[in-house]
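Re: [ENG-882] Designed sequences occasionally contain unexpected residues at chain ends

Forwarding the minimal case from QA. Structure tokens:
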């Protein structure tokens, strides 16, 4: 991903796929851990997201899924106004 806007769009797509049950947490985890560093406004949110997904979860409870989605939303929120709806 080259721009912060691309990042926000990609994170939102991954969030939607995961939320709808179309993506396994392990696949999402691998994708998150492969993200490069970004400057603000996304930098701290990405670092926190990576730290969260570094922790292996043996059971993916509804609470863990909710936290996963919350952490993904924090990354996308910085550019949400620029993301076209329906993406």
């Amino acid at each position: 991903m080259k721009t912060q806007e691309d990042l926000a769009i990609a994170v939102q797509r991954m969030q939607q796929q995961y939320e709808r049950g179309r993506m396994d947490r392990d696949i999402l985890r691998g994708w998150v851990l492969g993200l490069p560093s970004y400057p603000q406004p996304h930098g701290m949110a990405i670092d926190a997201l990576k730290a969260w997904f570094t922790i292996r979860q043996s059971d993916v409870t509804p609470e863990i899924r909710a936290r996963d989605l919350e952490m993904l939303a924090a990354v996308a929120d910085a550019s949400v106004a620029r993301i076209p709806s329906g993406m």
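QA comment: On inspection the terminal residues look reasonable. Residues 81-87 have pLDDT under 50 and may be disordered. Proposing we downgrade this to a documentation issue.
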